[in-house]
Amino acid sequence: MYRCASCGTFNRVPPEPPSGQPTCGRCKATLDTTGAPQEVDGEAFERAVSGAPVPVVVDFWAPWCGPCRTAAPVLEKIGTQLKGRAVVLKVNTDEHPAPSARLGVRGIPTFIVFRDGREAARQSGTMPAPAFSRWLAQNGVS
Fold first, then answer.
1. Cα(36)–Cα(48) distance, rounded to whole angstroms?
2. Is 65 noted as a catalytic residue in this protein?
């Protein structure tokens, strides 16, 4: 399952797609199937979390935050490992403060796992990739 970065629609893509790059069933944009984290605004965040058929891992971060920048490659690696089984999103708390305010995010980076539109787990602060993977697995994302 992959989220279209253009329109936000979730698309099923077979593990071995036919030839060529898969496209969104709704807007026909090319789908990114790498699993790379997607930057979203507040509205796209709300739509993705409420309508996701797979777990959604969200990184609340800011560009000036050193630990956030340290966590970025770990999140990229995790997204690649989870591609198709979970969606990884990034919300810049400086540009889009409403979601983090609504959820009571007090420090960054904060990672939240959403399942069926609800918060399932939360972790503040950075972790090495193996610890992050364990935390996700303990919370049903694998």
1. 15
2. yes
